[in-house]
Task: structure prediction
Amino acid sequence: MLTKLMLTVMSKKYVDIYVLSMGSLWMIEQSQKDAGIDHYFKANLTTQDRRIYKPGRSAYELGVELIGQPRDQIAFVSGNSFFWHFVSGNSFFFFEFF
Result:
């Protein structure tokens, strides 16, 4: 239930919440539906179609392009228990991280 609490807090503090994943859109959407959290997200974004992957910088650049906001207006939250996104690609991309 911590996930739902975190998403509720984030959805009240921030305007839009997106997912940026290397997985397929179907996989992302099914995972969200199964967890009952699909209504929190404005859109699901995937790098899969362009065959670019995290932690490469181009994956985060694609996220910014698809969201259509300057990167200093985007915060990054990792769903991983270890923060390899931050340590590698994201640390050079300078998203706000929490």
The two ends are 19 Å apart (CA to CA). The CA atoms of residues 57 and 93 lie 7 Å apart.
